[in-house]
Amino acid sequence: xxxxxxxLFATVAVLAAVMVVTVRNPVHSVLALILCFFQVAxxxxxxxxxxxxxxxxxxxxxxxxIFFLFAVFLLDIKRTIHQERYSRWASFALPAGIxxxxxxxxLLGRGKFGAPVxxxxxxxxxxNLGKSTEAIGAVLFTKYLYPFEIISxxxxxxxxxxxxxxxxxxxxx
Amino acid sequence: MATSIPMEYYLVLSVILFAIxxxxxxxxxxxxxxxMSLELCLNAxxxxxxxxxxxxxxMTGRIFAIFTMAVAAAEVAVGLAIAVNLFKVKKSVxxxxxxxxxx
Amino acid sequence: MIExxxxxxxxxxxxxxxxxxxxxxxxxxxxxPANKKSTLGYLTIAGLVLxxxxxxxxxxxxxxxxxxxxxxxxxxILFEWIFILAALFTVIHSIHYLKLERIxxxxxxxxxxxxxxxxxVMAKGNDLMAIYVGLELMSISLxxxxxxxxxxxxxxxxxxxxxxxxxxxSGILLFGMSYIYGLTGSTNLYAISSSLQSGNNNFLIYTxxxxxxxxFSFKMALVPFHSWAPDVxxxxxxxxxAFMSSGPKAAALAIFLRVFVESFHGFEEQWTLFLWFxxxxxxxxxxxxxxxxxxxxxxxxxxxxxxxxxxMLGLLAFNELxxxxxxxxxxxxxxxxxxAFGVVIFIRYKEDxxxxxxxxxxxxxxxxxxxxxxxxxxxxLAGIPPTGGFVVKFYVFSSAIxxxxxxxxxxxxxxxxxxxxxxxxxxxFMYMKEPAEGQSVNTTPLQWSAVAISAVFTIVMGVxxxxxxxxxxxxxxxxxSSFHSF
Lengths: 173, 103, 486
Hints:
Chain B has helices at residues 7-27, 31-56, 60-90.
């Protein structure tokens, strides 16, 4: 049953991703990407991480993609639609992507994963659906306090930076 | 974990999405779509992290995924601000129009 | 019940200081009028000088704190010296330059500090997560800094290119990190190391290591991941370029050495294969393409690619001498590169910055001191004795020969010979040609003193290398011990 859902989500995600990079109209691209992110959020739930699924929806679909939509509307959609979609690197990109894909899938086939799986039984109880968010909160503010604080500075930088870049260009116009 | 899905399925899906993202970054001309392809790459990485985290029964991967999301948001904010600036000065969002410098 | 981790706050005092300084600058920015933004620069200088005074007393320990995230060892502290000096020189060179270029963005100084903070987090990071977060903090600050140049078209284009390629590189780096995490079950460098040592020999680990190496090489601008560097260096304000070519490069080297020596030392045979190629390609490509450059900033960009390739010889040699000399190389490179850019910043062409090589014609007659200093730095970059540039090349080459990389040293020597041509060409232009029209020197005493300090250190590090090399050797002892004990 779960496998069925996995294949459903995975297929839609891949198709949506292909649409993102191939369609002509950037608005369609944005919508396809939202669809793809939805599927990934569903996959996170399948992976017993509902908190990440919700975060994925809030951050990506709720914030980032809306941002993209605004940018697309702000810039010239009309002109880009009628222009050549692909850059001169395109003929080189596809084979490169396929080679990379095949190589890593082959490697995955040869590899054996999960060296430290023995511990999983003990932790599994902690990670059941309801407790997942609690477990994330418990380590985020203790064990991972330091990167958490630095991430807050990263967001501050992005915030100040976006203001500086847009306000400055406004003043000069 | 108690799922019946082999871990490799998730990893292969992640590789496919990552490869599509890289192809998009290299081959598309529109900067907005290039930025979207970058988001696709970061999302593929997140699938990897959450999968490993889930199958190893270790929290680190999930926390890493949360940080990746935050960084992605920051990168997009700055990227779109620069793209809007670029559009203002060049009236274009096409990568190849950004060719003032050569050599 | 939530258990609080053991936190040794003293380990991150320098980081806290830099962040506080950035916040003070942010707050003062609101009350300073638009034409007095240089006040912020002086404030930043004062703060960084105070931090430099504190640095000799910085907390040093070989025990990681913050749940193994932060390792404030002497290696990290040495690199923090480099970052703080790079930031200090950058701010000194920026104040007057920004006025001349009519860039009134007071936030500029903050971003220098945020980028410095990111680099410090990287150098102290003992966990892939901390390293990644620091790397992104540095990169995002740099994307913004490179977008605020006077020439809006070139500057914005450069920033866009930098952001797209930089984000792609971070994506590749993260992809590699995710495999390493999945295969070893941890992101802590020590845990990764011991997991890899205990016969965890999955095929996918090679992919992980390769992807991580690609990500780091991008940040160091090694060929074939260099394509952003010349454009970004040219398009960004020159003061930002000076910063980008010394600080972040040192930070990338810091994590390159730490991750590869501490965690991946068991796979040396595999990763030397592709690092050999990156290093050789950087040395050859950088020096050959630099010959045809008419723009001195682009020339210095290609020269920095060549130097990055040469520094990698030290990591490839993978012995104590090699790693210590790579660190020492970075120390010397900071001074000679900052010095060269410092002089380039104050050469003006009419109302613009002087970037064309022809503008430097006859500088020896019109401005002998500036010409002399630039000559000194270029000779050091070329590796001519008695400057620091010669000594570090000597150390790096001898370590590589010790390790048996004869071909690589031959390539390095060849690239040094080629690079002589374009460094000497600028010197010939300065002394042998008639003065160029519209050329002027516009600078402040503060900038002169910064360039003079760079010059003094460039020579001192070449004449008496022993104490500096001793410091570098002591600093890398901690890294080395992690693989000798196995």
